[in-house]
Amino acid sequence: MPVSAATSAAGATASAPRLALEGVAFRYGDREVLRGASLAVAPGEIVGLLGPNGAGKSTLFAILAGLLPPAAGTFRLDGRAIPAGARALRAASGIVFQAPGLDGKLSAEENLAMAARLHRVPRAAARERIPRLLEAAGLAGRTREPVERLSGGMRRRVELARALVHRPAILVMDEPTTGLDAAAFRAFWAEIEALRRAEGLTVILTTHQPDEAERCDRLAVLAGGVVVACDTPAALRARVPGDVVVVEADDPEAIAAEIEARLGLPARVRDDGVHVEKEQAHTLVPRIVEAFPAGRLRAVSLRRPTLADAYLAITGASLDEGKEAA
Protein backbone atom coordinates (compact mmCIF):
# COMPACT_ATOMS: atom_id res chain seq x y z
CA MET A 1 0.00 0.00 0.00
CA PRO A 2 1.24 3.54 -0.69
CA VAL A 3 2.44 5.44 2.36
CA SER A 4 0.29 8.49 3.09
CA ALA A 5 2.15 11.81 3.37
CA ALA A 6 0.26 12.47 6.57
CA THR A 7 1.40 9.30 8.35
CA SER A 8 4.65 7.38 8.64
CA ALA A 9 4.87 3.76 7.65
CA ALA A 10 4.20 1.23 10.38
CA GLY A 11 7.23 0.71 12.55
CA ALA A 12 8.88 4.04 11.67
CA THR A 13 10.35 6.00 14.53
CA ALA A 14 9.47 9.65 15.04
CA SER A 15 13.07 10.70 14.57
CA ALA A 16 13.79 8.62 11.46
CA PRO A 17 14.38 10.42 8.16
CA ARG A 18 11.62 9.90 5.62
CA LEU A 19 14.29 8.73 3.17
CA ALA A 20 17.99 8.07 3.73
CA LEU A 21 20.57 7.08 1.10
CA GLU A 22 24.15 6.10 1.79
CA GLY A 23 27.03 5.30 -0.56
CA VAL A 24 24.98 5.36 -3.78
CA ALA A 25 27.16 4.63 -6.82
CA PHE A 26 26.49 4.29 -10.54
CA ARG A 27 28.53 3.92 -13.75
CA TYR A 28 27.79 4.51 -17.41
CA GLY A 29 30.36 2.14 -18.87
CA ASP A 30 33.76 3.36 -17.74
CA ARG A 31 32.39 6.71 -16.53
CA GLU A 32 31.70 6.86 -12.79
CA VAL A 33 28.70 9.19 -12.43
CA LEU A 34 27.88 8.68 -8.74
CA ARG A 35 30.72 7.90 -6.34
CA GLY A 36 29.09 7.17 -3.00
CA ALA A 37 26.44 9.88 -2.71
CA SER A 38 24.71 10.07 0.68
CA LEU A 39 21.66 12.07 1.78
CA ALA A 40 18.97 12.04 4.49
CA VAL A 41 15.65 13.86 4.06
CA ALA A 42 13.29 14.53 6.97
CA PRO A 43 9.50 14.20 6.77
CA GLY A 44 7.96 17.38 5.38
CA GLU A 45 11.33 18.72 4.19
CA ILE A 46 12.08 20.18 0.76
CA VAL A 47 15.60 19.21 -0.34
CA GLY A 48 17.14 20.25 -3.64
CA LEU A 49 19.92 18.43 -5.49
CA LEU A 50 21.96 21.36 -6.79
CA GLY A 51 24.47 21.03 -9.60
CA PRO A 52 25.10 21.55 -13.31
CA ASN A 53 24.72 18.87 -15.97
CA GLY A 54 27.27 16.17 -15.31
CA ALA A 55 27.25 16.54 -11.52
CA GLY A 56 25.22 13.35 -11.05
CA LYS A 57 21.89 14.84 -9.94
CA SER A 58 19.80 13.51 -12.84
CA THR A 59 21.25 10.02 -12.37
CA LEU A 60 20.38 10.16 -8.67
CA PHE A 61 16.86 11.26 -9.64
CA ALA A 62 16.56 8.28 -12.02
CA ILE A 63 17.61 5.92 -9.21
CA LEU A 64 15.04 7.45 -6.83
CA ALA A 65 12.39 7.14 -9.55
CA GLY A 66 13.20 3.45 -10.01
CA LEU A 67 14.49 3.92 -13.56
CA LEU A 68 18.10 2.89 -12.88
CA PRO A 69 19.54 0.26 -10.50
CA PRO A 70 22.49 1.61 -8.46
CA ALA A 71 25.77 -0.28 -8.49
CA ALA A 72 26.03 0.18 -4.71
CA GLY A 73 24.30 1.93 -1.85
CA THR A 74 21.82 1.43 0.99
CA PHE A 75 18.30 2.88 1.25
CA ARG A 76 16.07 3.43 4.28
CA LEU A 77 12.41 4.48 4.12
CA ASP A 78 11.00 5.75 7.43
CA GLY A 79 13.87 4.06 9.24
CA ARG A 80 13.47 0.65 7.55
CA ALA A 81 16.10 -0.77 5.23
CA ILE A 82 14.73 -1.43 1.72
CA PRO A 83 16.35 -2.72 -1.47
CA ALA A 84 17.23 -0.14 -4.14
CA GLY A 85 14.27 0.27 -6.46
CA ALA A 86 11.97 -1.51 -4.02
CA ARG A 87 8.24 -1.45 -4.69
CA ALA A 88 7.76 0.20 -1.28
CA LEU A 89 9.78 3.24 -2.41
CA ARG A 90 8.00 3.47 -5.77
CA ALA A 91 4.62 3.21 -4.05
CA ALA A 92 5.56 5.93 -1.56
CA SER A 93 6.78 8.30 -4.29
CA GLY A 94 5.16 10.60 -6.81
CA ILE A 95 7.39 11.43 -9.79
CA VAL A 96 7.46 14.58 -11.91
CA PHE A 97 9.81 14.17 -14.86
CA GLN A 98 11.59 17.01 -16.64
CA ALA A 99 10.23 15.92 -20.03
CA PRO A 100 6.45 16.21 -20.48
CA GLY A 101 4.73 12.91 -19.80
CA LEU A 102 1.04 13.67 -20.23
CA ASP A 103 -1.12 12.31 -23.03
CA GLY A 104 -2.04 15.49 -24.88
CA LYS A 105 -5.13 13.97 -26.47
CA LEU A 106 -6.61 13.11 -23.07
CA SER A 107 -8.09 15.65 -20.69
CA ALA A 108 -6.49 16.53 -17.36
CA GLU A 109 -9.20 14.48 -15.66
CA GLU A 110 -8.50 11.48 -17.88
CA ASN A 111 -4.74 11.70 -17.34
CA LEU A 112 -5.25 11.60 -13.58
CA ALA A 113 -7.78 8.78 -13.82
CA MET A 114 -5.29 6.69 -15.80
CA ALA A 115 -2.58 7.36 -13.19
CA ALA A 116 -4.99 6.40 -10.41
CA ARG A 117 -5.67 3.06 -12.09
CA LEU A 118 -1.94 2.39 -12.52
CA HIS A 119 -1.42 3.06 -8.81
CA ARG A 120 -4.44 0.91 -7.91
CA VAL A 121 -6.25 3.76 -6.20
CA PRO A 122 -9.79 2.57 -5.37
CA ARG A 123 -12.38 4.04 -7.73
CA ALA A 124 -14.33 5.81 -5.00
CA ALA A 125 -11.15 7.44 -3.66
CA ALA A 126 -10.10 8.49 -7.18
CA ARG A 127 -13.51 10.05 -7.91
CA GLU A 128 -13.18 12.13 -4.74
CA ARG A 129 -9.50 12.97 -5.10
CA ILE A 130 -9.14 13.91 -8.79
CA PRO A 131 -11.49 16.94 -8.81
CA ARG A 132 -9.89 18.22 -5.60
CA LEU A 133 -6.38 17.96 -7.04
CA LEU A 134 -7.35 19.71 -10.26
CA GLU A 135 -9.15 22.47 -8.38
CA ALA A 136 -6.05 23.01 -6.22
CA ALA A 137 -4.04 23.21 -9.45
CA GLY A 138 -6.23 26.11 -10.64
CA LEU A 139 -7.83 24.11 -13.43
CA ALA A 140 -11.48 24.22 -12.37
CA GLY A 141 -13.62 24.57 -15.50
CA ARG A 142 -10.94 23.18 -17.82
CA THR A 143 -10.55 19.67 -16.49
CA ARG A 144 -12.20 18.04 -19.53
CA GLU A 145 -10.23 19.90 -22.21
CA PRO A 146 -7.47 18.03 -24.04
CA VAL A 147 -4.22 18.72 -22.23
CA GLU A 148 -2.58 19.88 -25.48
CA ARG A 149 -4.82 22.97 -25.40
CA LEU A 150 -3.56 24.08 -21.98
CA SER A 151 -0.70 26.50 -21.39
CA GLY A 152 2.74 25.23 -20.39
CA GLY A 153 2.20 26.29 -16.78
CA MET A 154 -1.17 24.55 -16.62
CA ARG A 155 0.25 21.35 -18.11
CA ARG A 156 3.01 21.39 -15.52
CA ARG A 157 0.44 21.66 -12.73
CA VAL A 158 -1.45 18.72 -14.24
CA GLU A 159 1.82 16.73 -14.10
CA LEU A 160 2.08 17.63 -10.41
CA ALA A 161 -1.53 16.64 -9.73
CA ARG A 162 -0.99 13.32 -11.52
CA ALA A 163 2.06 12.59 -9.35
CA LEU A 164 -0.04 13.17 -6.22
CA VAL A 165 -3.10 11.12 -7.16
CA HIS A 166 -2.07 8.16 -4.97
CA ARG A 167 -1.20 10.39 -1.99
CA PRO A 168 2.55 9.68 -1.92
CA ALA A 169 4.72 10.47 1.08
CA ILE A 170 7.56 11.71 -1.16
CA LEU A 171 7.42 13.88 -4.26
CA VAL A 172 10.50 13.50 -6.51
CA MET A 173 10.90 16.09 -9.29
CA ASP A 174 13.49 16.57 -12.04
CA GLU A 175 14.02 20.26 -12.97
CA PRO A 176 10.28 20.82 -12.46
CA THR A 177 10.02 24.47 -13.57
CA THR A 178 12.32 24.46 -16.60
CA GLY A 179 10.71 26.55 -19.35
CA LEU A 180 8.03 28.13 -17.15
CA ASP A 181 7.53 31.90 -17.11
CA ALA A 182 7.69 33.84 -13.84
CA ALA A 183 3.94 33.64 -13.14
CA ALA A 184 3.78 29.89 -13.81
CA PHE A 185 6.89 29.39 -11.65
CA ARG A 186 5.25 31.17 -8.70
CA ALA A 187 1.97 29.28 -9.13
CA PHE A 188 3.76 25.92 -9.25
CA TRP A 189 5.74 26.61 -6.09
CA ALA A 190 2.73 28.04 -4.26
CA GLU A 191 1.04 24.69 -4.79
CA ILE A 192 4.08 22.76 -3.52
CA GLU A 193 4.21 24.87 -0.37
CA ALA A 194 0.48 24.44 0.23
CA LEU A 195 0.82 20.65 -0.06
CA ARG A 196 3.75 20.62 2.32
CA ARG A 197 1.78 22.61 4.91
CA ALA A 198 -1.45 20.63 4.50
CA GLU A 199 -0.10 17.08 4.24
CA GLY A 200 3.52 17.12 5.38
CA LEU A 201 4.69 16.16 1.90
CA THR A 202 8.42 15.47 1.58
CA VAL A 203 9.96 16.89 -1.61
CA ILE A 204 13.23 16.02 -3.38
CA LEU A 205 14.05 17.86 -6.59
CA THR A 206 16.94 18.35 -8.95
CA THR A 207 17.72 21.88 -10.05
CA HIS A 208 20.45 24.08 -11.42
CA GLN A 209 18.36 27.27 -11.10
CA PRO A 210 19.33 29.47 -8.11
CA ASP A 211 15.80 30.95 -7.88
CA GLU A 212 14.30 27.48 -7.50
CA ALA A 213 17.03 26.35 -5.13
CA GLU A 214 16.15 29.23 -2.79
CA ARG A 215 12.75 27.58 -2.22
CA CYS A 216 14.37 24.55 -0.59
CA ASP A 217 14.88 23.99 3.14
CA ARG A 218 18.28 22.45 2.40
CA LEU A 219 20.42 21.95 -0.67
CA ALA A 220 22.60 18.94 -1.39
CA VAL A 221 25.48 20.28 -3.47
CA LEU A 222 26.57 17.64 -5.99
CA ALA A 223 29.95 17.73 -7.70
CA GLY A 224 31.70 14.85 -9.39
CA GLY A 225 29.02 12.40 -8.28
CA VAL A 226 29.37 13.16 -4.55
CA VAL A 227 27.33 15.29 -2.15
CA VAL A 228 30.05 17.73 -1.10
CA ALA A 229 27.84 19.94 1.09
CA CYS A 230 24.27 19.91 2.42
CA ASP A 231 22.89 22.95 4.22
CA THR A 232 20.34 25.74 4.08
CA PRO A 233 20.57 28.21 1.18
CA ALA A 234 21.58 30.97 3.61
CA ALA A 235 24.36 28.85 5.16
CA LEU A 236 25.72 27.96 1.71
CA ARG A 237 25.73 31.61 0.61
CA ALA A 238 27.60 32.48 3.81
CA ARG A 239 30.54 30.43 2.51
CA VAL A 240 31.27 33.23 0.04
CA PRO A 241 33.44 35.81 1.81
CA GLY A 242 32.02 39.32 1.57
CA ASP A 243 30.13 40.66 -1.42
CA VAL A 244 30.60 40.24 -5.16
CA VAL A 245 31.78 42.96 -7.51
CA VAL A 246 30.65 42.35 -11.10
CA VAL A 247 32.63 44.06 -13.86
CA GLU A 248 31.10 44.20 -17.35
CA ALA A 249 33.47 44.72 -20.27
CA ASP A 250 33.94 43.74 -23.93
CA ASP A 251 37.10 41.74 -23.13
CA PRO A 252 36.36 40.04 -19.79
CA GLU A 253 39.32 37.64 -19.89
CA ALA A 254 41.76 40.54 -20.29
CA ILE A 255 40.02 42.55 -17.56
CA ALA A 256 40.16 39.59 -15.15
CA ALA A 257 43.89 39.14 -15.80
CA GLU A 258 44.56 42.85 -15.22
CA ILE A 259 42.55 42.91 -11.98
CA GLU A 260 44.61 40.02 -10.66
CA ALA A 261 47.87 41.65 -11.77
CA ARG A 262 47.11 45.22 -10.60
CA LEU A 263 45.06 44.60 -7.46
CA GLY A 264 46.29 41.16 -6.43
CA LEU A 265 42.75 39.77 -6.21
CA PRO A 266 41.36 36.57 -7.79
CA ALA A 267 38.91 37.35 -10.59
CA ARG A 268 36.67 34.85 -12.37
CA VAL A 269 34.96 35.28 -15.73
CA ARG A 270 31.26 34.38 -15.55
CA ASP A 271 28.37 34.74 -17.99
CA ASP A 272 27.40 38.18 -16.68
CA GLY A 273 30.93 39.57 -16.33
CA VAL A 274 34.09 39.37 -14.23
CA HIS A 275 33.43 38.44 -10.58
CA VAL A 276 35.63 39.57 -7.71
CA GLU A 277 34.72 38.44 -4.16
CA LYS A 278 35.96 40.45 -1.19
CA GLU A 279 34.90 41.49 2.29
CA GLN A 280 33.90 45.16 2.38
CA ALA A 281 33.74 44.95 -1.38
CA HIS A 282 32.22 48.43 -1.64
CA THR A 283 35.72 49.81 -1.09
CA LEU A 284 36.90 47.87 -4.13
CA VAL A 285 34.54 49.48 -6.65
CA PRO A 286 36.36 52.84 -6.93
CA ARG A 287 39.74 51.08 -7.06
CA ILE A 288 38.62 49.00 -10.06
CA VAL A 289 37.15 52.04 -11.83
CA GLU A 290 40.34 54.04 -11.29
CA ALA A 291 42.56 51.17 -12.47
CA PHE A 292 41.20 51.26 -16.02
CA PRO A 293 41.03 54.10 -18.57
CA ALA A 294 37.65 55.46 -19.64
CA GLY A 295 35.89 53.16 -22.10
CA ARG A 296 37.46 49.87 -20.97
CA LEU A 297 34.62 49.04 -18.56
CA ARG A 298 30.91 49.14 -19.36
CA ALA A 299 29.67 48.85 -15.78
CA VAL A 300 30.81 47.97 -12.25
CA SER A 301 28.21 46.81 -9.72
CA LEU A 302 28.03 45.35 -6.23
CA ARG A 303 25.69 42.61 -5.02
CA ARG A 304 25.23 40.03 -2.29
CA PRO A 305 26.40 36.43 -3.00
CA THR A 306 23.95 34.10 -4.75
CA LEU A 307 23.72 30.32 -4.67
CA ALA A 308 25.54 30.26 -8.00
CA ASP A 309 28.41 32.08 -6.25
CA ALA A 310 28.22 29.63 -3.36
CA TYR A 311 28.36 26.63 -5.72
CA LEU A 312 31.45 28.10 -7.36
CA ALA A 313 33.09 28.77 -3.98
CA ILE A 314 32.36 25.24 -2.72
CA THR A 315 33.17 23.23 -5.85
CA GLY A 316 35.33 25.49 -8.02
CA ALA A 317 32.87 24.90 -10.89
CA SER A 318 30.00 26.93 -12.32
CA LEU A 319 26.36 25.92 -12.22
CA ASP A 320 26.34 26.64 -15.97
CA GLU A 321 29.08 24.10 -16.68
CA GLY A 322 28.63 20.50 -17.76
CA LYS A 323 27.86 19.35 -21.28
CA GLU A 324 26.46 15.90 -20.58
CA ALA A 325 23.34 15.33 -18.52
CA ALA A 326 23.98 12.93 -15.69
Automatic annotation (TrEMBL):
Domain of life: Bacteria
Pfam families on file: ABC_tran (PF00005)
Keywords: ATP-binding, Nodulation, Nucleotide-binding, Transport
Domain ABC transporter: start-end pairs: 19-249
Keyword Ligase included in the entry's annotation: no
GO molecular function: ATP binding
Protein family per UniProt: Belongs to the ABC transporter superfamily.
Protein's recorded name: Daunorubicin resistance protein DrrA family ABC transporter ATP-binding protein
